[in-house]
Design goal:
Length: 122
């Protein structure tokens, strides 16, 4: 049986347990070489976990509620805070992984967000 999740602006509540999420990373990737990209995927997950990150979405097909899906791979990663996310991105472990998705393997955009709760929104 899967646990019910309810989302608020800055928290995930799972089975009565509340966890603060301070930073979200949205990555949009156009994969040009799927075979080589597998090497990146094998290295990026452990690098994310090493910095307390958690994959919330990884390549799932989105439901387009408005507009058209552009076919770009979407990844959303939760980090404990924005500074940890920056340290992850600049780390030796992730720099090595990043080398396996550099163009022409894939074209990527990485957008880092501080959650609304940390900005004073309720």
């Amino acid at each position: 049986m899967t646990a019910a999740l309810s989302w608020r602006t800055d928290r995930i509540v799972k089975e009565g347990e509340e966890k603060q999420i301070s930073a979200l990373l949205l990555t949009r990737v156009r994969v040009n070489d799927p075979e080589t990209y597998k090497d990146y995927m094998a290295r990026s997950g452990p690098a994310i976990a090493a910095f307390g990150g958690r994959l919330a979405v990884r390549g799932a097909t989105p439901e387009a509620l408005e507009g058209a899906d552009d076919g770009v791979r979407n990844v959303i990663v939760e980090f404990p805070d924005i500074e940890t996310a920056r340290r992850w991105y600049d780390s030796a472990q992730y720099t090595e992984a990043r080398g396996f998705r550099a163009p022409p393997v894939a074209d990527a955009t990485f957008l880092l967000f501080e959650t609304a709760g940390n900005l004073g929104n309720v």
